[in-house]
């Protein structure tokens, strides 16, 4: 399903490497192109939930927030992925942020969650993935619509998203996503009023479930991931898109978000979602705080979380 994406990289020699990097499950587990340590068969979600003060109520490690600067080694012991996710959540909570993280292994189906992974967060521009997915699933991302949708994702063009929103059901989009991808709790319509698509709410768990399903749906995944690969370093409004998962894994294929309610220089949060570690895992990090914070501060928190989650750009083993 990755052929389209690979064409954008040019030479056939590079294409072979690209397939190994972004679809390791399509290739033998050999050498540097191998997926991370072989996982057991899927058994459901590994869960860590936290209380309001950031103290684990079940499934967590209870460790204090860890500075990303000191987290450089890859933990290869059992339970490392859960501990990494917990540390990332605790790091944000210690600074007064609410956070939820979800991870899904695209090969085994294993899910790991931490923090408020089943709580609602505003999608901000990550909802643009849903807009494109519906157009693709219904065979309507053609002609003049295609370059508009491409700008919507690569440049996070808000005007492009607004021009397409009504055609995908408007505020009913989240219900369609839930039904099409069989999500038990996809989220809610916009909470800031009709047509305010950035305030659509989603859970981190629902987002990674969607990302995994889109990956396995050729009609959607091929174009969607090809376009995410082409994300520009800066959005149309000048905001850097090189934070969060993309800062932790330089080859991550992501959609970023940011948004607030008043001053455009301040935000409620800067979600970071996409595919990491050579395309093996779908990840969603949603982290918010009120009152709003400067965008650089919010991006810094999510970047620190991503680096805790992905030491050396790799996902720890289960």
Could you walk me through the main structural features you see in this protein, from its secondary elements to its overall organization?
This protein is of the alpha+beta class. The chain is 34% helix and 17% strand. It contains 11 helices and 12 strands. The protein has helices at 3-7, 12-22, 80-93, 128-137, 145-154, 158-165, 173-180, 204-215, 218-229, 245-248, 295-309; strands spanning 45-47, 49-50, 56-58, 98-105, 111-115, 121-122, 187-188, 201-202, 253-256, 266-269, 272-276, 281-294. Strands 1, 4, 5, 9, 10, 11 and 12 form a 7-stranded mixed beta sheet that branches. A 3-stranded antiparallel beta sheet has the order 6-8-7. Strands 2-3 form a two-stranded antiparallel ribbon. β2 and β3 form a beta hairpin. α4 (128-137) packs across α7 (173-180). The longest helix is centred in the C-terminal third of the chain and has 15 residues, at 295-309. The radius of gyration is 18 Å and the shape is globular. The two termini are 27 Å apart.
